[in-house]
C-alpha cells in the first residue's frame, strides 16, 4: 500500500494543471484556454491580501485571552474575517461506525429516540421558563425595594430641601448594583456581555463561538442581567433570555455537564453538532417565547436566524419547547401574583391589552404608519452608527476588565443623574387616577393628588414604562416630556449597549420608539382638531415602538409576529409589518442592523442566506482553498501527527485519498476525515504495527467519539512515541466515505446553496477524474459579500 | 469526435462492472467482494415487482382522459407509485446560457428583479383577496336568497300543514344549485374537485400535477365552490381559497396566460420551476390568509407543506402576500358591510371574539383538553377510514362524469332531507334573544318569541353555525340536539368529501368538532354542579373543533397558528397545540391524514421530510435507476430523436458524457440535459451540419426556452427530416455542466437529504472514475416508506 502523504503543493499549481492537460487530455479541451484565462484573471484580482484560507483551530491557540479583549487580538475592522472561529459540522459524518449503528437500530429504537427528543424539548422549555420566572421575580423584588428606598428618601427631602442627597443615594445604589453585574461579566465570563443574540445567531449559523453555551456563561448571564436591570440601566431582560434558553438546551440535550464533571449517561446519541444545533434552536425559541409570551414568534426567530433546512417534526418540537416555556413562566408567575392557575397572562414583557374597538386603524392611517417606519429606520440607523463608533472606541481603549467595570458604573451613575435631573426640572404634573396604574408615583413638587409624569417614564423598570406609554390616558404626558425623554433615553441606551454587562436592547428600543410614537400621535391629534378618536396616542406609541425596534435590529417576520403576539391583537399585523418593512429598507440604506454590526466587528465568518447576487462569475476554482493536505487511507501515524501539529496550516478537515499500488495514476478521493476524529484515534492509539505483533487495530466505538465531544484535546496534549510514529493507521472505518463533492466549474451560488442547505463545513472540489484539487470551507464563502461598489472580498486574518 | 450514443444497457450490468474491475482496478478493491455481495442481495429483494424506475413523461400519453377517471387508469392501490407524474425542477439549470445572463446582469438588475418579485407578491395577495371577497359576497347573497325563499315557504306551510312541499322545494333548490357546480367540475375540469390542498401539497413537494395551476381550473374552482356552499352541502369555502391563491400566483408570476394566449412580455425571468414555486408558495399562503384571516398561519402552511429550504427574504415576501391578501379582503368586505375603512375584521371564516376573561382556562383543564384531543383523533381516524373506503368505491364505480353529477345531486338532496327531518323532529325551542344573533331563525312549531335551535345549526351556512356553537349562550342547545347534529353531520361531511364538486373539509370538521365539544362542555358542567364558570361550552366547542380538524387533516404548527389567529386570542395557543398534538398521535396510530390518503390513492410520488428511519442500509446503488441513457456532448440528431421518441423508457433527464477521441477509456460525466431542453433545441433546429454548408449552430437564447415553458411540445409534434437526422447537435452550451453527483456507496438518507434540501429532480450516481452508473429520480426515493412491518417498497406502475 502506498503510504505517502499526498500534499498537492499549490506553488506548483500551474505545473500541475499543465501536467493534467498532458497526461489525461481534458475532454472538453476545446474550451479550456478561454476558461482558464478568465479564471486566472479572476484569481489575480482576488488574491490580493489573501493570507491563508484554511479552516483554523482556535482552541489551541488563545481561547482564554482572545476573549478578554486584548487590543491586538480583537479586530476592529469589519473588512476582515477572523480565522480563529471554528465551524460546526451540521452534516452527519456518515462513516462506517455511524452507518453500522444506524443499521443495527430497530424501528422501535428510532421511535424511542424521537420520544427522547420530545422529552428533551419539554425539559428545555420548562427550565427556560423557570429561569425567566426567576429573573422576573428577582428583578421585581429587588427593583421594588430599590425604588421604595429612593422614593421614601426623595419624599423625605422634598419637604426639607437637599434633594441632592437623594440623587447621590440613587446614583450610588445604581452604580453599586451595576458594579456587581459588570464584575462577574468582565472578570469571569466576558462572552456573557450584551444580549447574546449575535452569539446565538452565529452558533445557529454554524460558527463555533467558544464558551457560548456553557453553564458558567448561563450563571453569569442570569446574575448579570438581574444586576443591570435593577441597577437602572437603559436595558431590558428579554434579549438575554434567548441566550439563556440556548445554553439550557445545549446542556440538557447532552445529558451531562462538562463544567460540573457529571455525565448522566443519557442522550448520548445527541452528542454531535447536528442534533445539538436542533436543540439549541429550540432553546432560543423557548427563550423568545418566555421573554415576549410569543411562542410562534420564538419558532420564527429560530428559523429566521438559524435553520436552513425546514423540517416539519423539528419545527413542531421547537414549537413545543416554546409553548412549554411560556406555560411554565405563566404558571409560576400566576402563583407569584396570587392568581394560581390563571394561565392567560403572557411572558416577561407584557404590552397590555389593546382593545380592537378603541384603537382600530383606518386606511388613511397607513401612509402615516409608513412615515413612522421611515423615521424609525432613520433613528435606528443613527443609533447603530453611534453604537458602531462607540464599539470601535471600546475595542481600542476600554479593553481591560477593570476599565470596563468602571465604564459600566459611570453609565449607571450618569443614568441616575440624568433621570433625576429630568424629573426634577419637569413640571408635567398629572392627576393621580383612581386606578393607580403607576407603581411608584412620585409627587415631588406637584400638588397633592398629582404625580410627576416624567417620573413614570424614568422612575420605573423599562417594561412598566413601555406599558404606561402604550396605555395611559391620551393626556398623561405632555409633548415636552415625551420629546425630552426620547432624546435622553436614546443616547443613554446607545451608550449602554456594548457595556460589559449582560443586557438586551429590545426594551430600550421599544421605549424610545413608544415615546416618540406617542409624541407623534399627540402632535397629530393636535393638528387634526384634537380629540378625534383615530389619533389615539397609545396606538401610535405601539407603531413607533415597532418602527424603532425594527430600525435597530432589522428583524423581519419573527419581529412582526413577536410584536403581534405581545400585543395579543392580530389586527395590528399589517401596520406592524409595513412599519418594520419600511424601517428595514430605510435603515439598510445607511448601515446594517445592530447585531450584524457586532458580528462583523468580531470578524465572524457568517454565511448569509444566499450568495451575493452578482457572484455568478466566480466558480469553485477561485473560491476554494488550496493546496489541500490529503491523507492516505492507510496512513503513517507520524505523518498524521505532523500534519495535525503544523500550526501554520491548522486544517480541520482532510480529504482521504487512495492510490493503487504500483500504479502511477494520481490518487483518487475516497473520503473525508476531521481533525477531531484523528485526535480521538491518536488518543486511543488505534494503530496497526507493521511488525505483526499487534496486527489487529483496536476496535473503536462511536461512544469514544461521543465521550470526547465537544471538547477534543489539542494535538499537543497527546504523546506519541517514536515507535508509534512508525505504525500505520487505517482510516477506512472512520472517514466519511461519501463526502459531497463539486467540480471546479461549479458557480459560487451553486456551491453556496449546497453549503447552506446542507450545513456543510468542508466541501471537496474534484476534477473530472475524481482527484482532489481544493477544499471549500465556510470562510472561503463568507469572504465574498456585496459592498457599496459591487462584490467585495474580505481579507482573512489570524486575529 | 465520437458520436455514438452511449447506452449502458443493464442486461450487461454484470459484464460491465466486471470490465470496470479489469480495465481500471478499483482503488478500494480489497473491500469490493463483501460490498457487492451485500448489495446484490439487497437488489434481489428489492427488484420484485419493479417494472421500471425511470422518470416518465405523461403529457404525451393520456393527459386528457387519465383525469376523467377511466377505471383502469386510476390506481386504487396505495401500494403503487404512478409513473405518470412528472417532477418539477427546483434546482436551477446552470448552463452556459444561464450563467452568461447572470454574469451580464448588473447589481441594479438584481435589485430590479427583487423589486418585481415584491410587486408580483403584492399582486398575488391583492387578487387572492379579491377572489375571496367575491366568493364570500356571492355566497352570502345567494345563500341569503335561498334561505329566505325556503324560510318563507316553511313559515307558510307550518300553519296550513303540508311541510313536505317545503322539503321538496328545499331539496330541489339544493340539488339544482349543486348540479351546476358538479357539471362544471366533472365535465370541464375534474382537477378542480375537492379542496385542492392535496394537489397544492404535491405541487410544492415537486410533483407536476397536470392542469392544476391553470386559469380554467381557477374559474371552475371559484364557481364550483360558490355552488357547493350555496347548495347547502356540508362543505366549506376555505380549502379552495388555497388552491385559488396558488393558481393566481402561477398566473401572475409568469406575466402571461397560456389559456388566453396573452403574453405581457413581463416577468420573463420568472419562467422556470424554481421561481414559479416560490410564487405558488406565496399564493397558497395568501389563500390561507384570506380564508382564515391568518397571515402568519398562511406563511407557516406554505412552509410546512412546501418549502424545503428556508430563505429569509422569500419568507418575508410570502408574508407580504399574505398580509396584502387579508388586507384586501378586509377592506372590500368593510365596504360591503358598510363600515368602509374598518380593517379590523378578519378573513372569510371568523371565529368571533373570545374574551380572555370569560373563557380563561386553568391548569386542571389541561388533561380534559388532552382527552378531547384523543377523541378528536379517534373520530378523525374513523372519518378518514370511511372516506377512504368511499373513495375506493368511487374510483371503481362512480367514474363517469354523469354518474358523478348524479351522486352530487343525490348528496345535496339527502343533506336537505336529513336537515329538514332533524329540524322537524327536534323540539329544542329557545327564546329569541334580544340581540338576534341568528340570521334566519325558524319558528316552526315553537311558541312565539322562540326559535328552533336545531335549525340554527342546519339552516345556515356552515360558517355561521360554527360561530353560533362557539359563542351562543351556554344553554342555547340541548345535549340531544348537539349529539344528533354531530352524528348526522359527521356522516354527511364524510360522504360529501370526494364528490365531484369543489369544496373544502375545514369548516365541516370544525362544525362537527364544535358540536361534540359543546356537548362535552355541557356534560362536564352538568357533572360538576352546573353553572361553574370554567366549563364554558363555547371554550369546549373551540377545543373540540380543533381536535376534530386536527384528527382529520393532521396538520401541526400551521393549524395551531391558524386556529389561534382565527380566534384572535393568543391565550389558547397551548391548549390548541396540545389538542392537535394528541389528535395527531392518536389518529396516526390508525390511519394517515385525509390529504395524505388522497395523495396516496392517486399514487403520487410524494417525498416526505426525511428518509425512512431504518433505511440506512440502503445505498444509492440499490436505489438508483439503471441503465441510464446517456448522450454525447456532440450528439447525432437522429440518436436524440430516437431516444426521446422511445416510449418504453420515457426518460426526462439525460447525463451528458464525453469520450476522448481515439481513447478506449470509458466516457466521463460532463453534464446533464433535460428532455424539455432537447425538445426546444430540436424545435429550433439547432444543428451543425457536417457538410460544412451550415457550420455555425444557430444561436439560441434563454428566451427561447422561457417562451416554451411550461408547456413543451411532445417529441411527436416535431418533424425532423432524414437529412437533419444526420446532423450533429452540440449540447455544451445548454447542458447543466455541474450536476450534483454522489458515489454509489452513499446511503439513502444522505441521498434523500441532498434531494430534498436542494429540490432536485435528477441526481447522477457516478463511480470513482466519474463515470455514470445510475440516476436517482424522485420516484426512486418515494418508493421506500415505512409500513407496519418496517421498510416497504412501493411498486411502480404506468397508471
Helix content of chain A: 40-55%
Q: Main beta sheet of chain A: strand number and arrangement?
A: 3 strands, mixed
Question: How many β strands of chain A by DSSP?
Answer: 18
Mean pLDDT of chain A: 81
Per CATH, what is the topology of the largest domain in chain A?
Answer: CBS-domain
- What portion of residues of chain A belong to β-strands? 5-15%
Instruction: Report the span from N to C terminus of chain A.
Output: 41 Å
Written overview of the protein:
The structure is a homodimer of 799-residue chains. With 799 residues, chain A is mainly α. The first copy, chain A, folds into three domains: 233 residues, Roll (CBS-domain); 230 residues, Clc chloride channel (Orthogonal Bundle); 187 residues, Clc chloride channel (Orthogonal Bundle). In chain A, 55% of the residues lie in helices and 8% in strands. The first copy, chain A, is built from 29 helices and 18 strands. In chain A, a hairpin with a 4-residue loop joins strand 4 and strand 5. The longest helix of chain A has 54 residues. The N terminus of chain A is likely disordered.
